[in-house]
Every structure is written in C-alpha cells, then in structure tokens.
Hints:
By secondary structure, the protein is α/β, with parallel strands linked by helices. About 30% of the residues lie in helices and about 20% in strands.
Amino acid sequence: MTFEVHPVPVGDIRSWDxxxxxxIAGYGIAGAAAAVEASAAGADVLVLERAGxxxxxxAMAGGFIYLGGGTPIQTACGFADSVDNMTxxxxxxxGPGADKSRIADYCAGSLEHxxxxxxxxxxxxxxxxxxPGWEPMGDQGLxxxxxxxxxxxxxxxxxxxxxHIPQMQNKKQGESSAxxxxxxxxxxxxxxxxxxxxxxxxxxxxxxxxxxxxxGITARQYGKDVAVRAHRGVVLATGSFxxxxxxxxxxxxxxxxxxxxxxxxxxxxxxxxAQALGADLAHMDATEVAIFVDPQQLVRGILVNGRxxxxxxxxxxxxxxxxxxxxxxxxxxxxxxxxxxxxxxxxSLTPQLMLRPPTWVCESVAELEGEIGLPSGSLQSTIEYYNxxxxxxxxxxxxxxxxxxxxxxxxxxxxxxxxxxxGFTLGGLQTTLxxxxxxxxxxxxxxxxxxxxxxxxxxxWGYASGVSLGxxxxxxxxxxxxxxxxx
Length: 487
C-alpha cells in the first residue's frame, strides 16, 4: 500500500529529536559514501537507517564496482584501458537515453574513485577471474561484468574487464558475498571520521522552510514520530522503488509481480518524498533484468525463442540476455544444450547456485522440437545452421566467441526458461553531477541532495554489473560533499 506524502512546514515542528549539519537517509553504499565525504569536509553527520544495521542492498550484493581507465588492478592483471575506451563502452551499453555527460564525468573520475576506495581500506586482490559467471567463485578482484568482450561491444571499444570486486574470505555465493567487504570499510571510515547513525528509523516526509528549502526529515522510530533537523542539507540514499508494488505497476509494469533483486527497504519512499516537493524524475520505466540460469550453461548451449530462433549471443552479459528475453521475446526462452555440454557445465560450477536441469531430453532435435511445442522444422533449421557455423569455428548470425562454439549433438535437452526473469528498477530522481535534486523547473531544490538507486544514475535502458555500486558510491561522495558545503 502506498500512502500520501506531503512536505511538512518547519513551523509545524515543536521540537527536534535529532540534529546534525548533514542528515543522510539510508546507510547503503550511497549513504556510506556520503557520510565519509561529508564528515571529511568537517560536517556533523547523522545517518538514518530503516533497518536494524547498516548495509542495505549493497551488503548483500556480489560487490562489483564498475571502474576502469587503467586502474592498478587492471594493470596488475595485464589489461590496458583508458578513459575514452571506458566511455565508449558505457555510452553503448547503458542504453538509449543514457546521460552522456554523466558517463563522461564518471569515467574521468574512475581512477581517483578507485584510489579513494583503497584509502577507505576496501581490499582488492589483483587477480583476474576469466570464466563466465554471476561473480567470481573465489576472492579474485577483476572480472568482465558487462559483456565488454562480446558482440557488438567488442567492435565499439577495446574489451577490458572493469568489474572490480572487494576481496572477501570465507565467501559463499548467494549467501555471503563481497558486497559486505565493500560496505564494512566505508562504514568504519565514516564512523572514524565522526559520523553517527540511528537505526530502525523509517523516514516519512521532508521538512521545509517557507521558501522551499529543505531543513529536515520527519520519521517514525519504534512507533513514535521523530523530527530530525539538518542545518546544511539532507541526502536521500534510500534505494530504488523495486519493492513498492504500486510504483512498479505505475512506472515499470513489465517487472510487476516478478522477483525483485533488491531488499524490501527499497520501497521508493525517498523518491516520493522528493516528488512531493516537485522533484523531476528520469528513466522510471528502465529496469535491470536477470535471467535465472547460470552463465556456464548459457555459453555452452543456444537460446531460442518461442519461434525456435536464436536472438542473442549466449556469451554476452546475462543482464542483457534477461532484458532481451523479457522485453523482446515475451519472456519466453529455451536453452538447448546437449549432454556433453551439460556435463561440462556441471563440472565447472562450484557451488552450483543456478544450474538448471533439462526440462526435456530427447535423442533427436526433431523429437525435442515436438516436445517443446515449437513450430515444425524451426528448431531443426536453427541447429543445422548453428552447427554448420560451429564446425567452422564461427557464428555468423550472432557472433558468439569461438571458444564456446561446438556443434550440438545427441542426446539433446532443453531448459524451459519461460518466466525465469526478475530484476530491479533503475529510474529515480533527476540530479546534477553534484547530487543536487532538480525541480521540474530545472533548478536545484535548496538543501536537498540524493545518490544511489533513488536517482537516475548512469544506466538507462542498459546495464553492467557494478554500475549501481559504482555510481552510488561515486555520486554519494559528491552529494555528501556538496551537502556539507551548503548553508
């Protein structure tokens, strides 16, 4: 259920329960980065966190931070990169409508941002993970995380891996991943610099002066109304709206009812609080879409749609596959894979998190085609064409890399991937490059700043793993710094 949100006049506040120079709503990646920078700038910082501890979605994530331009980790692993190369890739990969000025700004600051993370004691291991996957199996610190080395991106920019992953011991994929080792040092740095935190606080509305300046937040804590005064500025770092069913239905209906790759605190409250002041929005219909099957299986088979036709190179970024499947194939896909390839995938995966058993297994493609219910001859012609190219070491249709090309043999199976997608929202508040929230008239709303998934960041209708944690931390820093400078 979505409740009405209205700004509260400062004259209605009789007393303040908490006060600080900079008040940050949300203690995920954007909130932590904002707390570090605002505290380093000399501000008294208070972070309001809805959950009982810091972390947010970032602490539960794989920990990818999208960085490039020639970071020390890239160099140590033998990869050359440049700001221009990184910019060219992101301009293509972030989809139609992506903000080119923001992408250029992010890429230009990427090396400095890596250094900042290291200064905050985020650990990175200079080792490359070369296999396809959702994240490294071990504690490797670098990986391709956006399909940079797959078609068509490998024709647009020189491929370079940019998924930087903090090093974590005793890692357990899907349970305890490297996002924790990104968040922990940042929170410790913020605390060391003097930032305070209050937990179990659910923000409600923004408090404003008569001229529209934001000067605080109303909230609920343990069933009690509280008022929080911000002498310099408020930073919204409250995450996406992926867990607000009404907002998803309104803005991004194609993922309505699907699993949200997020946390339940991402209910859009920060966005709605700013909207009540006339804040502008961008890319509210844009989403990242995961497809729930392991990349080690994807690369060894072929994906076909409801017409028995291939539609995407199986070795590209899995999020791109998910988007194309949901938006352009009516959420219908079948992964065709033979017994040898399935055995190879089984042997390569430890742990076997998203390995899918075949739904159908047959001795011939014709029989499999009938079992799935595909048009007569469709899958047979698709595999005949694919096998002929694979025998020559090429994929003239979709340009899968030669290392994954092998004719599909017998017995052959298919994994039913219909309705196997889920994701999270990418749209949010429109901000300046300094994190100032923009009014629909184009001017900044005084005293209000935002960063992370509550904003429209780098991604529009495209994505790469690490973009959310990357621009969340990068522009969280900017928002915290600018809020600390406000008067």
